[in-house]
Amino acid sequence: xxxxxxxxxxxxxxxxxxxxxxxxxxxxxxxxxxxxxxxxxxxxxxxxxxxxxxxxxxxxxxxxxxxxxxxxxxxxxxxxxxxxxxxxxxxxxxxxxxxxxxxxxxxxxxxxxxxxxxxxxxxxxxxxxxxxxxxxxxxxxxxxxxxxxxxxxxxxxxxxxxxxxxxxxxxxxxxxxxxxxxxxxxxxxxxxxxxxxxxxxxxxxxxxxxxxxxxxxxxxxxxxxxxxxxxxxxxxxxxxxxxxxxxxxxxxxxxxxxxxxxxxxxxxxxxxxxxxxxxxxxxxxxxxxxx
Length: 291
Known about the structure:
Structural class: alpha+beta
CATH class: Alpha Beta
Shape: globular
Order of helices and strands: EHEHHEEEEHHHHEEEEH
CATH topology: Chloramphenicol Acetyltransferase
Strand content: 15-25%
CATH superfamily: Chloramphenicol acetyltransferase-like domain
Number of strands: 10
Distance between the termini: 41 Å
Number of helices: 8
């Protein structure tokens, strides 16, 4: 097949043909992503991140570095080093995604009726927080200047204008295409649920972190919610308490893509990177000692 694809591969992922028996059978027994959610919550001490951001912004760049960019970069580095987190299940088969990407919503202005746009950050092993910062800056600028809707919203608007019986039939057919990896790229090029991980920065609108469901549509296996920054108590091994700036994050993952031990080590790596943000200055493919 073209582009080196083998029979059974999709345009966005390679079929995993040598799975252990448990991970082969789980998608057959539990075929729906939303029935296989595991939720993990963590509290992150922001002491080192705050110090890091202050240093990065000393030169007063036009677009300042912020906590969200650090978290996006840390997530991309984590997925790079923990490739099972970049798997997805479709049509009862498990695939390894061809690229690493993060998607999130950009609010054009903070008003109830303001339009939203989507940002996609696609990363390589050679990327660092610098390239992520530049990419987000470019996309935020473009989104807030453009009046045109993205392709996914345009498709939804089209369905909404058709007679309901026709829309339902078309959507059912598109869902069939989604299941088999055949949805036209023009339909899903800005659809966040075709990314490695979706992020929602609820802290930017003064909300707490919490659970967010996955979707059976698309291929995303991980959803990360970022809460509002707050000063909270932290305790050392002797029980001494100190108030520190912190943020809570919540991750919802498709438990079929890996086992609990793999998820545990992944969270350990993510926390290590967030606690030592200088690691993001190195290429995402560089290994991190976190054992």
